[in-house]
Amino acid sequence: MRRYSTLSALALTAALAAPLAHAQTNPTPTAASAAPADPVVATVNNLKIHLSDVQAAAQGAPAQMQQMPQDQLFSLLVNQEIDRKAILVAARKEDLEHDPAVAAAMEDAADIKLENAYVQQQVTPAVSDTAVQAAYNQDYAGKPGPQQVDARHILVKTQAEAEAIINQLNHGANFATLAEKDSIDPGAKNGGELGWFTQDQMVPAFANAAFALKPGEYTKTPVQTQFGWHVILCEGKRNEPTPTLADVQGQIRQNLAEAQIQKVIAAVRANVKIKVFNPDGTPTTPVTAAPAK
C-alpha cells in the first residue's frame, strides 16, 4: 500500500507538473550561435550539471522557494546541485557504492525510478488537454451545478431552549434578532447568517433539515447535531452555476490520472504470477498464473 501511494504521488507530479522556466543571464543567441537545447550550467570535476537538472530540482522545490525571483532561484538551485555533485565525488572516493547496504539501496532507488517512468508513460496520454476537455464536456458542460441553500440558524445548548425560540418565531419574532440575542454560534452577530452552501458542506442532520425547507420556512422542531440544538431558516434555494473549464480542469486532470493509475496497476498485476505469504512464510493465497500469450 505504501508503494502504491508513492507511485500515485510521483506519477501525478510527473504527469501534471510543467517545467519551471528560468531567467538566462546570457544574451539571446543568434541563429549562427544557437544555444544547446540543454546547456551545461556548472561542472564539478568532470561531472556536468545541465539546465534540465536545475529544472527538475525546481519542480520539487517548496512553494515558498518557487516564489523567489527567478535569477535568485536559479543561482540557489545551481549551488544546491553543485553541493550534491561534490558530495557524490566524496562518496565515490570512499567507494561507498560497493558497500552492500548502499548498493541495495541504490538498486531499489533505480527500480523505483523505472517504475515511475513506466507509470508516467502510461498516464500522460490520459491527462492530455483533449482528454480533459472531453471529461469536462461529459461531466460539466450544460449541466447545472449542485443545489445550494441560503440559510440562517440559531444554535443553543438544549432542546428546551430551541423549542422556546421556535415558539417565539411562531408568534412573529424576528429570526435575525433572536439569533443575535440567543445563539451561541460565532455567526450570531450577523443574525445567524450562513450564506449559500451545498448539502455536503454541512453535517448530515443539519443539511437534511435545511434542504427540506422551502424559502421562508424555518424548522418547526429542533435539529440536533454534535454542536448543539439548531433552529434553521431557509432564505433561498438555487443551483450553483456551471463551473468553467478553468475552474475544474485541475481536479479533472487529477481524477483522470488517478483512474489511469488504477488501470495500469490492474493491467500489470494481471500479467504476472503473484504469491503472497504470511509473516511465518506460509502462503496466504493461491498462485495467480499469468495469462497465456
Task: Describe this protein's structure.
- With 293 residues, the chain is an alpha+beta fold.
- It has two domains: 1-24 and 36-143 and 244-293, no CATH class; 147-239, Chitinase A, domain 3, CATH 3.10.50.40.
- It is 48% helix and 14% strand.
- Strands 4-3-6-5 form a four-stranded antiparallel sheet.
- A hairpin with a 2-residue loop joins strand 5 and strand 6 (228-239).
- The longest helix has 26 residues, at 245-270.
- The chain is elongated, with a radius of gyration of 30 Å.
List keywords for this structure.
Chitinase A, domain 3, disordered N terminus, single chain, alpha+beta, 293 residues, 4-stranded antiparallel sheet
Low-confidence stretches: 1-32
Give the total of beta strands.
Answer: 6
- Judged by helices, strands and strand pairing, the structural class is alpha+beta
- Radius of gyration, CA atoms, in whole angstroms: 30 Å
Shape: elongated
Number of helices: 10
Q: Give the count of structural domains.
A: 2
Order of neighbouring strands in the sheet with most strands: 4-3-6-5
| Biggest beta sheet attributes | 4 strands, antiparallel
Percent strand equals 5-15%
End-to-end gap: 29 Å
Average pLDDT metric: 87
**Helix amount:** 40-55%
Write the element-wise H/E pattern from the N-terminal end onward.
HEEHHHHHEHHEHEEH
